[in-house]
User: Which sequence fits this backbone?
């Protein structure tokens, strides 16, 4: 019997074997959660016991999800790789939630002139900054739905992490990503139609 | 990079991008393949397209890859 089958069998049983399996899996998940939080520590402003508390929360929630979805494991990877996916995702959720304990900027602030910098552009001339910010703001106002606008402003202008926005809006990462994806397509089409960008490359590149 | 180029790059979308749900569904398979085979992106271009565009899923992929490389079953 392979290692993956052993894991599934152990966790599917009842009694002491299952309890031992759960404890072993929790230890593995906790180890991965701790190393993932260390790897992503630049996104957090906490250390020590508080950081370890997030690791415990992520491991516990991942364990619950894994047990609930055990029947969905199809053996396409090692069992541990499949299980690690859950705890890595839970770490992302905890980091997203933690953002709101000390947010750096209000979610709905609208300083459009910071847009070029937020896109990673070099400091531009004042006229270019104003032209670009004005064109995008008009395109946003005229083409996006209220939800698309809210998501665009939060993520692009204010740098709210997507997982933090997911928590704030009670949504899912998939739904917020799709909202942004559709907003990007709409904005590009509008900026092409208005002559700011062309179909292949930007007018100003 | 000027502002217009940066904006254009940001607004570009890849039609192969399947979104977070489908990418996460197969992330464990993709990550194991990527850990040992440089052709993972060629075999799963729709996942590669999503991971290149989605910061949070890309971060999860990096974390999963690090976990795979740091442990054995």
Assistant:
């Amino acid at each position: 019997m392979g290692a993956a089958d052993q894991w599934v069998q152990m966790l599917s049983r009842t009694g002491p074997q299952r309890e031992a399996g759960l404890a072993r899996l929790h230890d593995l998940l906790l180890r991965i959660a701790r190393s993932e939080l260390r790897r992503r520590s630049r996104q957090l402003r906490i250390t020590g016991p508080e950081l370890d508390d997030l690791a415990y929360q992520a491991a516990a929630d991942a364990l619950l999800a894994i047990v609930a979805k055990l029947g969905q494991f199809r053996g396409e990877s090692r069992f541990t790789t499949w299980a690690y996916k859950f705890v890595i995702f839970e770490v992302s959720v905890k980091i997203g939630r933690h953002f709101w304990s000390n947010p750096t900027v209000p979610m709905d602030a609208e300083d459009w002139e910071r847009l070029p910098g937020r896109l990673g552009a070099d400091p531009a001339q004042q006229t270019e900054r104003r032209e670009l910010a004005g064109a995008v703001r008009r395109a946003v106002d005229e083409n996006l739905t209220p939800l698309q606008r809210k998501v665009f402003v939060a993520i692009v202008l204010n740098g709210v992490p997507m997982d933090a926005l997911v928590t704030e809006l009670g949504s899912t990462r998939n739904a917020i990503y799709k909202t942004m994806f559709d907003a990007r397509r709409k904005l590009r089409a509008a900026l092409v139609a208005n002559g700011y960008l062309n179909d292949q490359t930007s007018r100003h590149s | 990079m000027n502002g217009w180029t940066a904006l254009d790059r940001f607004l570009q979308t890849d039609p192969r991008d399947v979104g977070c749900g489908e990418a996460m569904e197969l992330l464990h398979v993709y990550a194991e393949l990527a850990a040992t085979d440089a052709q993972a992106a060629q075999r799963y271009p729709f996942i590669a397209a999503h991971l290149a565009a989605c910061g949070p899923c890309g971060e999860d992929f990096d974390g999963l890859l690090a976990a795979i490389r740091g442990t054995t079953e």
Q: What stands out?
A: Chain A has nine helices and no strands.
